[in-house]
């Protein structure tokens, strides 16, 4: 469907179009009516604009759609795979893996997730500012007084990632007049953050006796859960279980425990402890090819609009570097999405799009804000049409519309590409769960 206001492309000779325009007054059609270009008062430069974007314009360029009903379905499918009573905590760090944390976090809670995990203080504060009341755990290390004070003020729960943080946490708690809620991160083999597993049980016992600390849980993170039959993962599980045994033997209160990410949760049929921290699977992607869940579907669709179409002769260079040269008279369409939106430039010339019920190939170098497509064989395609770049509801045989396919082409993982979907893409809820 063509965008309202601009039909087809270049059907009228350029000279005629200009003549038509000059016949009328010098004006521009703005959303609020016709404006005189010689008087710039209407721009309101003296008063900072208070307007927010017109919701209809959110789909004028490029955007992400989030399928709310599918998110709920994914959560239910995953919950059914977990040990009875195990809670799902939704990992919504990095803007919910590019899906839009503001949108996804409340949806996940409404669908049954019991808490949220973020990586940074700022991510947690943003969700609180939005009014979310659910528990929010900051997974990253907070090593300074200022960070911990802010975390307490925003009622965030923090990770204890090394014993040296304890005095600072106690001071902050005293100032706040309430205990600091902590989750003890134990390094059982990831070698990233956390107290050494050999010291975990002893430290837990000590922490339980510190009134300034509210010991919420003890957790660890798996390094190789996405590998089939991983001995390293089994070693991490064994170490974690040993810590639990040691705590029990010491007679200390047994913490709430969590170890599994998506791959860990799906590779083990039981023994999921009190919680699992799920990211990728919740978004509908299997964390490894051998860890498929029937019915699990990606909740993200990436779409953009064609803003220009031109007919060019054979031997015309297209885009930066002229790395693509037309081999026949061609109709070249420009799509308003580029690498600044998160489409990797290294996919130049390798992308396929879905437009008007068929495939179209991307040609030439992907630029910062736009990329070009060969629509020579598709006269039906017009300026304003939507091209879909990622989406699971398309013909399931078309694996090229899965982020996994992009990742395979680039030798990376879906996580990296999803997180790369930039902030300037509006995130829109489609298929609301009610
Ligand atoms: C500590 C921690 N827990 C859980 C997750 C969720 O992992 P996944 O998206 O594979 O479920 C992550 C993600 O990187 C993480 O860092």
TrEMBL record:
Isomerase recorded as keyword: yes
Xref: Pfam families: Ala_racemase_C, Ala_racemase_N
Stored PROSITE patterns: ALANINE_RACEMASE (PS00395)
Domain Alanine racemase C-terminal: 299-430
Reactions that this protein is recorded to catalyse: L-alanine = D-alanine
EC number: 5.1.1.1
Ligand binding (substrate): 192, 368
GO molecular function: alanine racemase activity
Catalytic machinery residues: 93, 320
N6-(pyridoxal phosphate)lysine modification, residue list: 93
Pathway: Amino-acid biosynthesis; D-alanine biosynthesis; D-alanine from L-alanine: step 1/1
Isomerase listed as a keyword: yes
Cofactor: pyridoxal 5'-phosphate
Record's keyword terms, sorted: Isomerase, Pyridoxal phosphate
Function field: Catalyzes the interconversion of L-alanine and D-alanine. May also act on other amino acids.
Record-stated family: Belongs to the alanine racemase family.
HAMAP family in alphabetical order: Ala_racemase
Stated name of the protein: Alanine racemase
Source organism of this protein record: Thermostichus vulcanus str. 'Rupite'
Organism ancestry: Bacteria, Bacillati, Cyanobacteriota, Cyanophyceae, Thermostichales
């Amino acid at each position: 469907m063509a965008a309202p206001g601009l039909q087809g492309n270049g059907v009228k000779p350029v000279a005629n179009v200009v003549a038509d325009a000059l016949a009328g007054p010098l004006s521009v059609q703005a959303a609020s009516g016709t404006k005189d270009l010689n008087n710039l008062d209407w721009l309101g430069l003296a008063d900072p604009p208070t307007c927010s974007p017109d919701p209809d314009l959110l789909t004028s360029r490029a955007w992400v759609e989030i399928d709310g009903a599918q998110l709920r379905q994914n959560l239910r499918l995953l919950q059914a795979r977990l040990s009875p009573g195990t809670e799902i905590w939704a990992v919504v760090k990095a803007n919910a893996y590019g899906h839009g944390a503001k949108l996804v976090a409340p949806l996940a809670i409404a669908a049954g997730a019991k808490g949220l995990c973020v990586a940074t203080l700022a991510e947690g504060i943003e969700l609180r500012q939005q009014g979310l009341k659910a528990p929010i755990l900051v997974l990253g290390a907070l090593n300074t007084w200022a960070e911990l004070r802010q975390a307490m003020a925003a009622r965030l729960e923090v990770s204890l990632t090394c014993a040296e943080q304890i005095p600072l946490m106690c001071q902050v708690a005293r100032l706040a007049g309430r205990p600091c809620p902590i989750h003890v991160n134990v390094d059982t083999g990831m070698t990233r953050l956390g107290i050494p597993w050999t010291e975990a049980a002893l430290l837990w016992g000590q922490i339980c006796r510190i009134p300034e600390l509210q010991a919420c849980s003890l957790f660890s993170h798996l390094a190789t859960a996405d590998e089939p039959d991983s001995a390293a993962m089994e070693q991490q599980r064994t170490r974690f279980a040993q810590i639990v045994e040691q705590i029990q033997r010491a007679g200390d209160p047994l913490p709430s425990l969590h170890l599994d990410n998506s791959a860990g949760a799906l590779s083990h049929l039981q023994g999921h402890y009190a919680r699992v921290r799920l990211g990728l699977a919740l978004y509908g992607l299997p964390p490894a090819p051998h860890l498929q869940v029937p019915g699990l579907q990606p909740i993200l669709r990436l779409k953009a609009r064609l803003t220009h179409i031109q007919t060019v002769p054979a031997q015309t260079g297209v885009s930066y570097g002229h790395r693509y040269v037309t081999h026949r008279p061609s109709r070249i369409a420009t799509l308003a999405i580029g690498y600044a939106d998160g489409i990797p430039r290294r996919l130049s010339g390798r992308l396929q799009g879905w437009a008007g019920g068929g495939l179209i190939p991307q040609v030439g170098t992907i630029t910062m804000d736009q990329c070009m497509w060969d629509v020579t064989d598709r006269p039906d395609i017009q300026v304003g049409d939507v091209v879909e770049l990622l989406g699971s509801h398309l013909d399931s045989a078309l694996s090229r519309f899965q982020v996994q396919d992009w990742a395979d082409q680039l030798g990376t993982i879906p996580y990296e590409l999803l997180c790369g979907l930039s902030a300037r893409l509006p995130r829109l809820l489609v298929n609301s769960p009610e």
